[in-house]
Design a protein that fits this description.
With 355 residues, this protein is an alpha/beta fold. The chain has helices at 18-27, 47-60, 80-85, 90-105, 136-157, 171-181, 194-197, 202-209, 244-254, 278-282, 289-307, 314-319, 324-354, and strands at residues 3-6, 32-34, 63-70, 109-113, 160-164, 186-191, 213-217, 220-226, 229-235, 260-262, 271-273. It is 46% helix and 16% strand.
């Protein structure tokens, strides 16, 4: 299981070329780069540029993944560049992105997501799940219909559209989309921190999606207990509440060769998880009481560890200056150590079974 990094979130990405991002990732000890969208590499879908990026990644011994855009018709107006590429047709625009990824970079595992997160908006309204003009069930129905429209092109190009477990969608909903449209064309990009935002235990969530996971965004989080439920702040892998042995073990069981990409993020944003708010709970019909209880246990456990000075308090953690490279290095070290333990146990179990 190779460890890489999100090409949009690596420090300095906005000022660096895709080639420079690959070289930066290599210098940090990464084994690959997951560019969020092909448009981050070439807004004009220049196949020559994509071939150059592919060749450079291969020369550096790095895996290369990339993505497309949002597959929610209610969010298409927020990506006018895709509609322009389709000459007024958003569907055709997405297909052009798919074709460029395959033809230019020979990439077939492609990120997509179902909504946007707008931190400038107040409270829950920052999240597309809580749009009042488009109820979430209506959005899900439109997403499913749109994915069915894209499926023939995906099959022709031999690619997977890997839906991220983004802040607005639950793992149960993502799995239902994959099973409805077909796992031959859909997969899942597991974002380990985002499942917390939907009131899901990361280990249980990983087990649900593991058969379909084809890409990852890996990061940890700390949880604070609040009067509305919990609040999430990002942290490097191993410094937060996530049981990485459980998460990576679930993924390893289904795909030990999975490419695992770290998504660094500053801890400054606290996302509200309204587990004690009836309005929030009303739009989460799949909420599992056992998983809710586990999240509260994880939050209390972190608080106890902080009292013993084993980890920073949440206030201390959020006050620290953000160092993206340190986030990546610390996460990679923890993930590799965890994977080494999983592999050792797997080998031992195989030896015992054979013996």
């Amino acid at each position: 299981m190779k460890i890489g990094v999100d090409g949009r979130k690596i420090p300095g990405a906005a000022e660096h070329s895709p080639i420079a991002i690959l070289e930066h990732a290599k210098s940090l000890g990464m084994e690959g780069v997951y560019f969020r969208t092909v448009l981050d590499i070439t807004p004009s879908l220049d196949l020559g540029v994509l071939r150059e990026v592919r060749e450079h990644a291969d020369a550096l011994g790095l895996y290369l993944q990339m993505g497309l855009a949002k597959v929610n018709p209610y969010a298409s107006a927020e990506a006018p560049e895709v509609r322009v590429l389709g000459q007024g047709d958003y569907t055709r625009g997405i297909i052009r992105l798919m074709e460029a990824c395959r033809e230019g970079a020979d990439c077939g595992e492609l990120w997509v997501a179902c909504g946007n997160y707008k931190p400038e908006l107040p409270g829950y309204y920052a999240n597309d799940r809580f749009r009042t003009d488009a109820p979430w069930p209506d959005q899900l129905a439109a997403i499913e219909k749109f994915l069915h429209q894209l499926a023939p092109a995906a099959r022709d190009l031999d690619i997977h559209l890997n839906i991220e477990t983004h802040e607005e969608i639950t793992t149960n909903e993502v799995v239902r989309l994959v099973e409805s449209v077909g796992p031959d064309v859909l997969g899942i990009t597991l974002d380990t921190a985002n499942v917390l935002a939907r009131g899901e235990d990361p280990v249980a969530a990983a087990r649900r999606v593991a058969p379909y996971v084809r890409a990852t965004h890996l990061r940890d989080s700390v949880l604070a207990i609040t009067d509305f439920g919990l609040a999430r702040s990002f942290s490097p892998c191993g410094l937060g509440v996530i049981d990485w042995d459980g998460v990576l073990g679930a993924l390893w069981e289904h795909n030990p060769d999975l490419w695992a990409s770290i998504e660094p993020a500053a801890p400054t944003m606290q996302m509200p998880i309204g587990l004690s708010d009836e309005a929030w709970r009303a739009v989460h019909p799949d909420l599992d009481p056992a998983e809710v209880a586990e999240l509260y246990r994880l939050a209390r456990d972190y608080d106890e560890r902080a009292r013993r000075s084993e980890v920073p308090t949440i206030e201390e953690f959020r006050a620290q200056a953000y160092d993206g490279e340190a986030f990546i290095r610390r996460s990679a070290e923890h993930l590799r150590a965890t994977l080494a333990g999983i592999e050792q146990r797997t080998l031992h179990q195989a030896t015992v079974t054979q013996g």
